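I am still getting used to C-alpha cells and would like to learn alongside you. Please make up or recall a protein chain and show it to me in full. Would you write everything just below, so we can both look at the same thing?
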Amino acid sequence: MGKLQIIHTDGEDLVVITRSDYEALLARAGDEASEDAMTARIVEATDAKIARGEDVALPTAVWAAIESGEHPIRAIRKYRGLTQIGREGLPSSRM
C-alpha cells in the first residue's frame, strides 16, 4: 500500500490514498470492475518487465496452481485474496 494522507476537518478525519490502493480495496470488497482494472494493471506491468528483459517471479504457490492446470489469472487472484463477483452480487467467497 502506498503512502496515505490524513486530513483533519471539523467533523471527521479524511484519508487520502492512491487510486491504485483505492481500486485494490474495492476489488477486495468485491467490486468486479475494480478487480478487473487491478488485474489489467498487473498484466501490463508484467508485460513491460518482460519487454525490458527483466525476470518476473511468481510465488511458488501460484506456479504450483498453474502447473496443476489452474488458469494463471485465477491462480494470481486466488493468491492475492481476490474473487470474482458471485451470481447475487456477493463475492463468491461469501456464497
Q: What stands out?
A: The chain has one domain: 5-86.
